[in-house]
Amino acid sequence: MIGNERRGLKLTEKTLKDRERVLGYLHPDTILTRNNFAAALLQTGNRTVAKHLFIQNLAECKDVLGPNHPLTRATETVLSLLR
């Protein structure tokens, strides 16, 4: 199981880098992938790094997607649980 989590983390990180390069840092799909990467970090025990990434991504969600977008709301919920 641990091996699968680490592999998933690496694949998610690669996908994020690819989307940042191809779509741009603030593209909605890139923002979603960044949230997925933060969630994968959390799953593998990297709580501090994940929390930092969720905080950073929340600002981007609000700016790009708006404060009422489902991803913005989901990110706020995750952060409220991490505090």
From TrEMBL:
Top-level taxon of the source organism: Bacteria
Pfam families to which the protein is assigned, alphabetical: TPR_10
InterPro entries cross-referenced by the UniProt entry: TPR-like_helical_dom_sf
Protein name listed in UniProt: Tetratricopeptide repeat protein
Naturally occurring in which organism (per UniProt): Streptomyces venezuelae
Lineage: Bacteria, Bacillati, Actinomycetota, Actinomycetes, Kitasatosporales
